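Something for you to look into today, if you have time. Just paste the record in under my message, thanks.
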Amino acid sequence: MKNLKFNVCGLSIFPAFTEKIIADSKNYFNLSFEFSEEWSGFIKTAAISVNDKVYNCLIDNNGKIEAKNLPTFENGALKISVFGGDFLATEEVILTVHPSGYKKGVAPPNVPPEIYTQLTEEINEKTQKVMEAEKSVIMAEEAAEKAMAAASAVGDEIDGITVKDTSSNEDYIAKLRLVDGKPVIEYEEI
């Protein structure tokens, strides 16, 4: 995005950019303003006139108007002034908006029918890949559920295994328990 900067000094406004403004561009230009001291503390609004239709756009605390909050600039004269406070207003600065090559409502000339076929095939291919990915996710979820159930069953089988030590003269049994999912051997005298 391009930033169209203006200096506001007292009641005068001056463009501080060299970019050409081209008609029909939407969401491309941001406006920014640098103000002299007398504008300090005021809520400021830019009056933007596009072919004699006026749009009042609030200038944020950083001195900017985002592109999404601006009208589409049309071929011809673009007039910008600023007002705010109780009451300051600048003169209008008049800028030229140069024509674009865009013609509203005109389809691209001589589009071969195979272009639409290619687009349809591409969309179908992407749709198929999405459906396959969704199926893989469902299968993975089912496999994970089965694995969790199997692990739980094995854990239940391990918990409580007991053996008697016959290699020594002492009478005790060793019990295998699961504590927080970890095997722990406990010894009990008989």
About this structure: The two ends are 82 Å apart (CA to CA).
